[in-house]
Write a structure and sequence with these properties.
The chain is an alpha+beta fold and 322 residues long. Helix content is 47%, strand content 9%. The structure holds glutathione (GSH).
Length: 322
Protein backbone atom coordinates (compact mmCIF):
# COMPACT_ATOMS: atom_id res chain seq x y z
CA UNK A 1 0.00 0.00 0.00
CA UNK A 2 1.27 3.47 -0.91
CA UNK A 3 0.33 6.37 1.34
CA UNK A 4 0.21 9.65 -0.56
CA UNK A 5 0.49 12.86 1.47
CA UNK A 6 -1.26 15.55 -0.50
CA UNK A 7 -3.01 18.83 -1.07
CA UNK A 8 -5.90 17.82 -3.26
CA UNK A 9 -5.60 20.71 -5.75
CA UNK A 10 -1.81 20.56 -6.24
CA UNK A 11 -0.75 19.90 -9.84
CA UNK A 12 2.43 18.17 -8.57
CA UNK A 13 0.29 15.84 -6.45
CA UNK A 14 -1.89 15.07 -9.46
CA UNK A 15 1.23 13.79 -11.25
CA UNK A 16 1.68 11.12 -8.61
CA UNK A 17 -2.04 10.28 -8.32
CA UNK A 18 -2.14 9.74 -12.06
CA UNK A 19 1.03 7.59 -11.98
CA UNK A 20 -0.38 5.44 -9.15
CA UNK A 21 -3.65 4.94 -11.04
CA UNK A 22 -1.85 4.26 -14.31
CA UNK A 23 0.28 1.57 -12.65
CA UNK A 24 -2.83 0.19 -10.87
CA UNK A 25 -1.17 0.38 -7.47
CA UNK A 26 -3.03 0.27 -4.19
CA UNK A 27 -2.88 3.70 -2.57
CA UNK A 28 -4.63 5.95 -0.11
CA UNK A 29 -4.46 9.72 0.15
CA UNK A 30 -3.76 11.65 3.34
CA UNK A 31 -4.73 15.33 3.21
CA UNK A 32 -2.29 17.56 5.03
CA UNK A 33 -2.85 20.98 6.61
CA UNK A 34 -0.73 23.21 4.38
CA UNK A 35 0.46 25.60 7.12
CA UNK A 36 1.74 22.98 9.53
CA UNK A 37 2.35 19.75 7.61
CA UNK A 38 2.46 17.89 10.97
CA UNK A 39 1.24 14.72 9.26
CA UNK A 40 4.55 14.24 7.40
CA UNK A 41 7.11 15.52 9.90
CA UNK A 42 8.07 11.96 10.84
CA UNK A 43 9.61 11.42 7.40
CA UNK A 44 13.20 12.38 6.82
CA UNK A 45 12.82 13.92 3.35
CA UNK A 46 11.93 17.34 1.91
CA UNK A 47 8.64 18.50 3.40
CA UNK A 48 6.79 19.19 0.17
CA UNK A 49 3.77 17.42 -1.28
CA UNK A 50 3.47 15.03 -2.94
CA UNK A 51 5.28 12.76 -0.49
CA UNK A 52 4.76 8.99 -0.52
CA UNK A 53 5.36 6.35 2.10
CA UNK A 54 5.52 2.84 0.70
CA UNK A 55 4.41 0.62 3.58
CA UNK A 56 5.76 -2.49 1.80
CA UNK A 57 9.37 -1.25 1.56
CA UNK A 58 9.42 1.45 4.27
CA UNK A 59 10.64 4.02 1.73
CA UNK A 60 9.44 7.64 2.16
CA UNK A 61 10.18 10.01 -0.66
CA UNK A 62 9.06 13.45 -1.81
CA UNK A 63 9.33 15.33 -5.13
CA UNK A 64 6.97 14.14 -7.84
CA UNK A 65 9.47 13.03 -10.49
CA UNK A 66 11.72 10.97 -8.17
CA UNK A 67 8.51 9.46 -6.77
CA UNK A 68 7.40 8.40 -10.26
CA UNK A 69 10.86 6.97 -10.99
CA UNK A 70 10.81 5.06 -7.69
CA UNK A 71 7.36 3.64 -8.49
CA UNK A 72 8.44 2.63 -11.99
CA UNK A 73 11.60 0.92 -10.74
CA UNK A 74 9.94 -0.80 -7.78
CA UNK A 75 6.70 -1.76 -9.54
CA UNK A 76 7.58 -2.29 -13.23
CA UNK A 77 4.05 -3.15 -14.43
CA UNK A 78 2.51 -0.53 -16.76
CA UNK A 79 5.79 1.39 -17.17
CA UNK A 80 5.78 5.17 -17.41
CA UNK A 81 9.45 5.62 -18.30
CA UNK A 82 10.73 4.24 -21.63
CA UNK A 83 12.98 1.14 -21.59
CA UNK A 84 15.35 2.57 -24.21
CA UNK A 85 18.16 4.36 -22.27
CA UNK A 86 18.29 7.44 -24.55
CA UNK A 87 14.51 7.91 -24.47
CA UNK A 88 14.47 7.27 -20.75
CA UNK A 89 17.10 9.98 -20.17
CA UNK A 90 15.16 12.38 -22.40
CA UNK A 91 11.87 11.69 -20.58
CA UNK A 92 13.62 12.30 -17.25
CA UNK A 93 15.07 15.62 -18.44
CA UNK A 94 11.62 16.72 -19.64
CA UNK A 95 10.12 15.83 -16.27
CA UNK A 96 12.60 17.80 -14.16
CA UNK A 97 12.67 20.69 -16.65
CA UNK A 98 8.88 21.00 -16.55
CA UNK A 99 8.88 20.66 -12.73
CA UNK A 100 11.41 23.49 -12.45
CA UNK A 101 9.88 25.86 -15.02
CA UNK A 102 6.29 25.26 -16.15
CA UNK A 103 5.16 23.86 -12.78
CA UNK A 104 6.47 26.83 -10.80
CA UNK A 105 5.40 29.51 -13.28
CA UNK A 106 1.93 28.03 -13.79
CA UNK A 107 1.45 27.89 -10.00
CA UNK A 108 2.47 31.55 -9.74
CA UNK A 109 0.07 32.69 -12.44
CA UNK A 110 -2.78 30.42 -11.32
CA UNK A 111 -2.78 31.83 -7.79
CA UNK A 112 -2.30 35.35 -9.16
CA UNK A 113 -5.44 34.88 -11.26
CA UNK A 114 -7.40 33.68 -8.21
CA UNK A 115 -6.22 36.72 -6.22
CA UNK A 116 -7.11 39.14 -9.03
CA UNK A 117 -10.58 37.77 -9.62
CA UNK A 118 -11.93 35.80 -6.68
CA UNK A 119 -9.57 35.60 -3.66
CA UNK A 120 -12.37 34.11 -1.52
CA UNK A 121 -11.43 30.81 -3.16
CA UNK A 122 -8.15 30.71 -1.17
CA UNK A 123 -9.72 29.85 2.18
CA UNK A 124 -11.79 27.13 0.51
CA UNK A 125 -8.53 25.57 -0.69
CA UNK A 126 -6.37 26.11 2.37
CA UNK A 127 -8.78 26.22 5.32
CA UNK A 128 -11.75 23.92 4.68
CA UNK A 129 -11.16 22.05 7.95
CA UNK A 130 -9.90 24.92 10.15
CA UNK A 131 -12.39 25.76 12.96
CA UNK A 132 -15.03 23.57 11.33
CA UNK A 133 -14.81 25.44 8.02
CA UNK A 134 -15.60 28.84 9.60
CA UNK A 135 -13.23 30.71 7.26
CA UNK A 136 -14.97 29.42 4.16
CA UNK A 137 -18.19 31.31 5.08
CA UNK A 138 -18.91 34.23 2.72
CA UNK A 139 -17.95 37.23 4.91
CA UNK A 140 -15.07 35.52 6.70
CA UNK A 141 -13.51 34.22 3.51
CA UNK A 142 -13.43 37.78 2.16
CA UNK A 143 -11.75 39.00 5.35
CA UNK A 144 -9.19 36.24 5.49
CA UNK A 145 -8.29 36.45 1.76
CA UNK A 146 -5.76 39.33 2.07
CA UNK A 147 -3.84 37.42 4.75
CA UNK A 148 -3.72 34.18 2.74
CA UNK A 149 -3.06 36.07 -0.49
CA UNK A 150 -0.19 38.07 1.03
CA UNK A 151 1.36 34.93 2.48
CA UNK A 152 1.20 33.18 -0.88
CA UNK A 153 2.41 36.25 -2.77
CA UNK A 154 5.51 36.41 -0.56
CA UNK A 155 6.06 32.68 -0.67
CA UNK A 156 5.90 32.46 -4.47
CA UNK A 157 6.71 36.07 -5.50
CA UNK A 158 3.48 36.90 -7.33
CA UNK A 159 4.21 40.61 -6.92
CA UNK A 160 7.28 40.13 -9.14
CA UNK A 161 5.53 38.35 -12.03
CA UNK A 162 6.19 41.23 -14.40
CA UNK A 163 9.86 41.81 -13.47
CA UNK A 164 10.52 38.07 -13.64
CA UNK A 165 8.93 37.89 -17.12
CA UNK A 166 6.76 34.96 -16.06
CA UNK A 167 4.16 35.39 -18.84
CA UNK A 168 6.87 35.83 -21.47
CA UNK A 169 8.96 32.86 -20.29
CA UNK A 170 5.97 30.55 -20.28
CA UNK A 171 4.92 31.63 -23.74
CA UNK A 172 8.45 31.09 -25.08
CA UNK A 173 8.46 27.61 -23.56
CA UNK A 174 4.96 26.49 -24.51
CA UNK A 175 4.76 27.58 -28.16
CA UNK A 176 7.54 25.21 -29.34
CA UNK A 177 6.12 22.42 -27.18
CA UNK A 178 2.68 22.91 -28.78
CA UNK A 179 4.30 22.76 -32.24
CA UNK A 180 6.18 19.56 -31.34
CA UNK A 181 3.03 17.87 -30.04
CA UNK A 182 1.07 18.89 -33.15
CA UNK A 183 3.65 17.01 -35.20
CA UNK A 184 4.57 14.08 -32.91
CA UNK A 185 1.69 13.60 -30.46
CA UNK A 186 4.06 12.82 -27.55
CA UNK A 187 7.06 14.52 -25.98
CA UNK A 188 9.30 11.44 -26.21
CA UNK A 189 9.06 8.64 -28.80
CA UNK A 190 5.71 7.41 -30.07
CA UNK A 191 3.88 6.56 -26.90
CA UNK A 192 2.56 8.13 -23.70
CA UNK A 193 5.27 8.50 -21.03
CA UNK A 194 5.78 10.21 -17.67
CA UNK A 195 6.98 13.26 -19.63
CA UNK A 196 3.50 13.71 -21.20
CA UNK A 197 1.85 13.04 -17.85
CA UNK A 198 4.04 15.76 -16.30
CA UNK A 199 3.23 18.29 -18.99
CA UNK A 200 -0.52 17.62 -18.86
CA UNK A 201 -0.60 17.98 -15.05
CA UNK A 202 1.63 21.01 -14.73
CA UNK A 203 -0.37 22.92 -17.35
CA UNK A 204 -3.46 22.62 -15.14
CA UNK A 205 -3.28 26.03 -13.37
CA UNK A 206 -2.96 27.81 -16.75
CA UNK A 207 -6.48 26.66 -17.63
CA UNK A 208 -7.72 29.57 -15.49
CA UNK A 209 -5.22 32.09 -16.91
CA UNK A 210 -6.85 33.62 -20.02
CA UNK A 211 -3.56 34.81 -21.51
CA UNK A 212 -2.71 31.12 -22.04
CA UNK A 213 -6.09 29.36 -22.08
CA UNK A 214 -7.33 31.68 -24.86
CA UNK A 215 -3.98 32.02 -26.64
CA UNK A 216 -4.67 31.37 -30.37
CA UNK A 217 -1.43 29.37 -30.77
CA UNK A 218 -1.92 27.23 -27.66
CA UNK A 219 -5.41 25.90 -28.38
CA UNK A 220 -4.05 22.60 -29.72
CA UNK A 221 -1.93 22.15 -26.57
CA UNK A 222 -4.94 22.47 -24.26
CA UNK A 223 -6.98 20.22 -26.58
CA UNK A 224 -4.13 17.64 -26.31
CA UNK A 225 -4.30 17.94 -22.51
CA UNK A 226 -8.11 17.58 -22.54
CA UNK A 227 -7.81 14.46 -24.67
CA UNK A 228 -5.30 12.87 -22.28
CA UNK A 229 -7.47 13.70 -19.25
CA UNK A 230 -10.42 12.03 -20.93
CA UNK A 231 -8.51 8.96 -22.15
CA UNK A 232 -6.95 8.40 -18.71
CA UNK A 233 -10.05 9.20 -16.66
CA UNK A 234 -8.55 12.24 -14.91
CA UNK A 235 -10.73 14.95 -13.30
CA UNK A 236 -12.24 17.18 -15.99
CA UNK A 237 -11.86 20.19 -13.66
CA UNK A 238 -10.20 20.86 -10.31
CA UNK A 239 -12.29 22.68 -7.67
CA UNK A 240 -10.57 26.02 -8.29
CA UNK A 241 -11.41 25.76 -12.01
CA UNK A 242 -15.08 25.14 -11.25
CA UNK A 243 -15.23 27.97 -8.70
CA UNK A 244 -13.51 30.40 -11.09
CA UNK A 245 -15.83 29.42 -13.96
CA UNK A 246 -18.91 30.02 -11.77
CA UNK A 247 -17.55 33.39 -10.64
CA UNK A 248 -16.76 34.43 -14.23
CA UNK A 249 -20.13 33.30 -15.50
CA UNK A 250 -21.83 35.46 -12.89
CA UNK A 251 -19.61 38.47 -13.49
CA UNK A 252 -19.45 38.12 -17.27
CA UNK A 253 -15.80 39.15 -17.45
CA UNK A 254 -12.26 37.99 -16.67
CA UNK A 255 -8.92 39.67 -15.92
CA UNK A 256 -7.31 38.60 -19.15
CA UNK A 257 -5.31 41.12 -21.14
CA UNK A 258 -1.71 41.49 -20.04
CA UNK A 259 -1.34 45.20 -20.82
CA UNK A 260 2.45 45.27 -21.17
CA UNK A 261 2.46 42.59 -23.88
CA UNK A 262 1.53 43.82 -27.33
CA UNK A 263 -0.70 41.28 -29.14
CA UNK A 264 1.43 41.43 -32.32
CA UNK A 265 4.88 41.18 -30.71
CA UNK A 266 7.24 38.47 -31.98
CA UNK A 267 7.78 35.62 -29.52
CA UNK A 268 11.33 34.19 -29.76
CA UNK A 269 10.90 30.56 -30.84
CA UNK A 270 13.45 28.05 -29.57
CA UNK A 271 13.32 24.29 -30.06
CA UNK A 272 11.15 22.08 -27.89
CA UNK A 273 14.10 20.80 -25.88
CA UNK A 274 14.41 20.11 -22.16
CA UNK A 275 17.18 21.74 -20.12
CA UNK A 276 20.20 19.72 -18.98
CA UNK A 277 18.88 19.22 -15.46
CA UNK A 278 19.07 16.13 -13.30
CA UNK A 279 16.97 17.33 -10.35
CA UNK A 280 14.02 19.69 -10.03
CA UNK A 281 14.31 23.18 -8.54
CA UNK A 282 11.66 24.95 -6.46
CA UNK A 283 10.79 28.58 -5.68
CA UNK A 284 9.29 28.41 -2.18
CA UNK A 285 10.45 31.31 0.03
CA UNK A 286 10.07 31.13 3.80
CA UNK A 287 7.72 33.83 5.15
CA UNK A 288 7.51 35.05 8.74
CA UNK A 289 4.37 36.60 10.20
CA UNK A 290 6.28 39.90 10.63
CA UNK A 291 6.55 40.26 6.87
CA UNK A 292 2.80 40.13 6.33
CA UNK A 293 1.70 43.63 7.34
CA UNK A 294 4.35 45.50 5.31
CA UNK A 295 3.56 43.30 2.32
CA UNK A 296 -0.22 43.95 2.33
CA UNK A 297 0.08 46.86 -0.18
CA UNK A 298 1.72 44.48 -2.65
CA UNK A 299 -1.27 42.16 -2.28
CA UNK A 300 -3.72 44.99 -2.88
CA UNK A 301 -1.76 46.17 -5.92
CA UNK A 302 -1.95 42.65 -7.32
CA UNK A 303 -5.67 42.49 -6.55
CA UNK A 304 -6.74 45.88 -7.81
CA UNK A 305 -4.15 47.30 -10.21
CA UNK A 306 -5.42 47.43 -13.79
CA UNK A 307 -2.28 46.04 -15.43
CA UNK A 308 -4.14 42.89 -16.33
CA UNK A 309 -7.26 44.26 -18.01
CA UNK A 310 -10.80 42.98 -17.87
CA UNK A 311 -12.35 41.40 -20.95
CA UNK A 312 -15.63 39.57 -21.62
CA UNK A 313 -15.78 35.99 -20.35
CA UNK A 314 -16.01 33.34 -23.05
CA UNK A 315 -15.39 29.71 -21.95
CA UNK A 316 -12.29 28.26 -23.65
CA UNK A 317 -12.89 26.60 -27.01
CA UNK A 318 -11.03 23.40 -26.00
CA UNK A 319 -13.28 22.74 -22.97
CA UNK A 320 -14.95 19.41 -23.60
CA UNK A 321 -13.24 19.16 -27.04
CA UNK A 322 -13.46 15.67 -28.57
N1 LIG B 1 9.39 19.78 -7.19
C1 LIG B 1 8.36 19.42 -6.25
C2 LIG B 1 7.45 20.60 -6.00
C3 LIG B 1 6.46 20.29 -4.88
C4 LIG B 1 5.82 21.53 -4.30
O1 LIG B 1 6.31 22.68 -4.41
N2 LIG B 1 4.69 21.29 -3.64
C5 LIG B 1 3.97 22.37 -3.00
C6 LIG B 1 2.49 22.21 -3.27
S1 LIG B 1 2.12 22.58 -4.96
C7 LIG B 1 4.20 22.28 -1.52
O2 LIG B 1 4.54 21.25 -0.99
N3 LIG B 1 4.00 23.38 -0.84
C8 LIG B 1 4.16 23.40 0.55
C9 LIG B 1 4.65 24.71 1.04
O3 LIG B 1 4.57 25.70 0.30
O4 LIG B 1 5.08 24.71 2.20
C10 LIG B 1 7.58 18.23 -6.81
O5 LIG B 1 7.68 17.98 -8.03
O6 LIG B 1 6.94 17.51 -6.03
Amino acid sequence: MIELYKLHWSHYVEKVRWALDFKRLDWRGIDIVAFRKDEMKRFDCAQTVPLIHDTATGVAISDSSPIIRYLDETYPQFPLLPADPAERALAWRWMVTLDSTLGLNARRLGYTQVIMECPGILSRLFMPGVCGGLFTWPVLRTLVAPVLGTMLALRFRFHRNRQDRVYEQLEEQLLPIAGHLDREGFLVGHTFTAADLTLACLLRPLRIVPHFADHPRLQSLFAWQERLFREHGRDAAFPYETLMAAHRQKRGSVRGRVSWLSPDRAVPMGDAQPLSLETAGNDIHEVSRWQLLPALPAYFRLRWSGRIKRMPYVPAAWLGAQ
